[in-house]
Amino acid sequence: MVGCTAVVFIVSLQPQQQRKSKFFYQVSSHWREPNDSTEVTNSSGAIPSLDHNNVASEVDGTVWTSVKVNRNSAPGVRNCQPRTNLMFLKIHKCASSTAQRIFLRYGKKHKLTQVLPLTGNYLGAPPPFKSAMIPHSLRTPDNTYNMMVIHTRLHTPELEKVMKPDAKWVTIVREPVAQFLSLWAYFDLMKFYNKTLEEFAKLPYEKVVRWRNARVYGIHQMFYDLGYGSAEEYGEKEMTAILQRLNQTFHLVMLAERFDESLVLLKDLMCWRTEDVAYLSINSLVRPIDSATTLTNTTRAGILRLSKPDVQIYDFFSRMFQERVEGFGVERMAQEVQLLRQANQHLTQICTVDRDDPRLYKEHMNWIDKVKPLPVRGDIPECIDMAKTELSILDDVRSMQRVWSKKGWPHLVRDRG
C-alpha cells in the first residue's frame, strides 16, 4: 500500500490572546472532514484557515505547529483552493434565503465584493438584470464582483459582464406545488387575487400568467425568476432547449427538498469546508401553510397545470441532481450529510437561547408578522450574522462596500499588486 504524509496540528495558545467566546468547532467536538487525515485541536473556539505547507503559522493569536506523520492515503482527502467567485440566482420560496445567508456570511468573512442594489434586496425584477443597474457608489473599479446573491431575474449575458470569468453559477428549485403554496401564504396571494386557492386553481392559464402581485409574484415562479414570462409561446421542443440551456448555464442546481445534500455538493463545487455551509433554520411561519398532501386532487392538479413550466424544470433538475449524487458517491454523501447535520446541531446548541434569556438578540429581527424568528444569542457575532434578516445583513455588506469605495478599494489594489 502506498503511504502518504499527513499533518497533525499541535496548538500552543497564548493565554492573553485566547478568544473569550466559544464558537463552532471546539476541542470536545473534534470536528473534521470525513476521511480527512488532518487532525486539529484548538481551544480558541474556531478552526482557522491553515496552510498545510507551513511548519507553523499564527491565526487569531493561536500558534499552530505542524508535525508530519506518515499515514496511508485515505479517500476523501482533497487538495484544492477555496473558490470565492459565485453567482447565485435566488429563486423565491425555494429555501434560497438560507442558502443566501450562507453566501453572505462567507463573503463578509472573506471581504468579497458583492453585486448590490442601492437599497433593499432586489436588482432586476420585474425587468431582467442589466449591469447598468448596479449603482455607481457600490461599483468596483472594473465593475466585476466576487458574488451576486440577491434577488434578480436571470439575464445571462448581462450577468456575465459583472461576474468573474471563473465564477460558479448556482441556483435552487423546489417541488412546484409546495413552492406555490409557500408563495401563496407568504405574499398573501388570496387577498391579491380575491380568490380561494381552490378557485384560483380552476382559472385558465392565459388569465393568470401575467397576473402577478407587484408584477413579480405568481404562477410558475421558477420559470419567471429564470428570466421567462408566459409559457404559451413554448412548445415541447422549445422547453427542451430551455432546459438544456439552463443546464449549461448553472454548475449546480440545488433541490430544496434535498437541501443538506445540495450543500454538500456546493461545498464540493466551491472547495469549502463544512463550517462554511453549516446553518441555522432561523425562521418559520407562525401559521403553517396547507401541506401539498392535504389538497384535494382537483386543486393539486390545477396548480400543476398552471405550473407546467416549473414542473418540467423541477423534474429535469431532480434527475440531474440524482445523477450528480450517484457520481459523488452515495456512501460518501451520507457521511458528508451526517457531518453537516452534526455541525448544524452544534451551531444550534451554541447560538440558541430561551426567549426570556437576557442574552437574546433583539436588534435587526424585524421579520414580517407571518414569520417567527429563532431566538439566538446576542453576545456572539457569528450567531448574530446567522440570525439577521436578509435586509439587515445586506445593509452590513453594503456599508462595508461603501467604505471600500470611499477608500479607493485598497484591498483590491493590494491584491492586484
Quick gist of this model?
The protein is of the alpha/beta class and about 425 residues long. It has 16 helices and 10 strands. It has 3 domains: about 5-70, no CATH class; about 85-330, P-loop containing nucleotide triphosphate hydrolases (Rossmann fold); about 350-415, no CATH class.
Topology at a glance:
Elements: E1 3-13, E2 39-40, E3 56-59, E4 62-72, E5 86-89, H1 96-109, E6 147-148, H2 156-162, E7 168-173, H3 176-186, H4 189-193, H5 197-200, H6 205-208, H7 221-225, H8 236-249, E8 252-255, H9 259-270, H10 274-277, E9 283-285, H11 297-306, H12 308-328, H13 330-351, E10 371-373, H14 381-387, H15 390-406, H16 410-416
Parallel strand pairs: 1-2, 5-6, 5-7, 7-8
Antiparallel strand pairs: 1-4, 3-4, 9-10
Helix pairs in contact: 1-15
**Through-space gap between termini:** 45 Å
The helix/strand class is: alpha/beta
Using only C-alpha atoms, the radius of gyration works out to 23 Å
Number of strands: 10
Provide mean pLDDT, rounded. 81
CATH architecture of the largest domain: 3-Layer(aba) Sandwich
CATH class of the largest domain: Alpha Beta
Helicity range: 25-40%
Spatial shape: globular
| Helix-strand topology string | EEEEEHEHEHHHHHHEHHEHHHEHHH
In CATH terms, the superfamily of the largest domain is P-loop containing nucleotide triphosphate hydrolases
Percent range for β-strand residues: 5-15%
Biggest sheet: strand arrangement? 2-1-4-3
Q: How many domains make up the coordinates?
A: 3
Query: Can you count the helices?
Result: 16
How is the CATH topology of the largest domain named?
Rossmann fold
Runs in which pLDDT lies below 50 for 5 or more consecutive residues are 1-22, 24-76
